[in-house]
Predict the 3D structure of the following.
Amino acid sequence: MKPVAFNNNVLRDGHQSLAATRMPTELMLPACPILDSMGFNALETWGGASIDAGLRFLGEFPFDRLDTLKKACPKTKHMMLFRGQNIVAYTHFPDDVVEAFVNCSARHGMDIFRIFDALNDTRNMECAIRAVNKAGKEAQGAICYTKSPVDTIERFVKMGCELAELGCGSIAIKDMAGLIPPHIVYDIVSGLKKNIKVPVVVHTHETAGMGAPSYYAAVEAGADVIDTSIAPFANGTGQPDTARMLAVLEDNPRKPDYDTKKLLQLREIFQDIYNKLGFYTDLKNEVIDTDALIYQVPGGMLSNFRVQLKEQKMEDKFDEVFAEVPYVREKLGWIPLVTPTSQIVGTQAMMNVKFGRWKMFTPQAMDIALGYYGRTPAPVDPEVKKLAQEKSGKEPITARPADLKGPGMEELRKALAAKGIKNDDEHCVIYAMFPQQLEDLYTKPREFYKLKSPKDKIPACPPPAEAAAKGPQKLKISIDGQERSVTVEKL
Ligand code: CO
């Protein structure tokens, strides 16, 4: 029996889950030679929220981090988390922007692209998978685990088979909320192992205390790789700690061999970093949070919502709002809760409780109802869909959302040139996602980043001001059957 391999996620999900994604590249460097010498299957070093946070809060140009880490860890494969057509942001981008992002990342040394879609709509992953394969790198198709009446073991296994057929070199079960119970992960992994030839990877969080037992079950079912991290950027809302997972697998025939002395050294280095990032850490993230199991929402969403409800003076409505979350999910077609849908569903649940159901329908929730984020796991409630249509004036769509978008790179190149900012592909793709933040990088003094508050958070979907700052919108309209292009500008 082949030993299970570990990925190490401390340089991305570890600090994203436990220190608001605030670990600067410079602090990572002392750990790199040891991490690189461990023989991990891959090091997760980039992607997810780390690109937004590094740029927005630390003033780091994302590709510089990748270059530096690649140089510091040359032996081990690098892995990134990639939100399909959303790349690493919160809306859909044109195919040529997705392709350019993949090509740049591949050129800078990214090896494994873990691709997911917030609605589990594989159409939103196809373009990225194709581009990764074309660049000669590994596309890892991820299935977002979520609980609902329509999400059955068979459905997850079927999605895995579909992703393998689309050309994925490995399949991941992505349990972003740490809600997967051992028997379920056992069944999904077994189903995948029976039906596909590529390796199966499991990613979970220890939020509700089920991470390690679920990994054990996954290993028993034949999972090839699991994701672990290094304490104190592990456990709690993070991945189970590498050393602990080794202990949990003691005497298991599939226990891998990782140097425990080196793990101790790593723990010391990361403890030191943790102390330095004290502003951004919170003990609440480190305890087992069984509330997450009761409410079936990601732990991060719970803590964010406690704060938001306070701001809205709705603290007394906590239970009501969380009881509303499954209602909103059901009406919107049982969508999973992961960036950006967790924020969209949460906000809508809050609005429903405050103003009455659907009295305040947020633009993002309307877009989900109308198909603008992709195909939902179950059909959207027809009345909610009709309401969204009336309130937004938009037509529902069934096509892949990115099919409505024309190419984007040329315009990005022009926009950057006009601003006097370098307009190579690297800058264009970052500008597409984070225009204001990229401009800040070249116009603000270093002090700007030092003054950022520890409480500043990454928005889960673009705030209206940011969307408006994107400038005029081009729309295609049809007059008497003739297609015309119009530009709509806000005055
Ligand atoms: Co995660």
Summary: Residues 462-471 have pLDDT under 50 and may be disordered. The first strand starts at residue 5 and ends at 8. Residues 13, 176, 203, 205 surround cobalt (II) ion (CB under 6 Å). The first helix runs from residue 10 to 18.
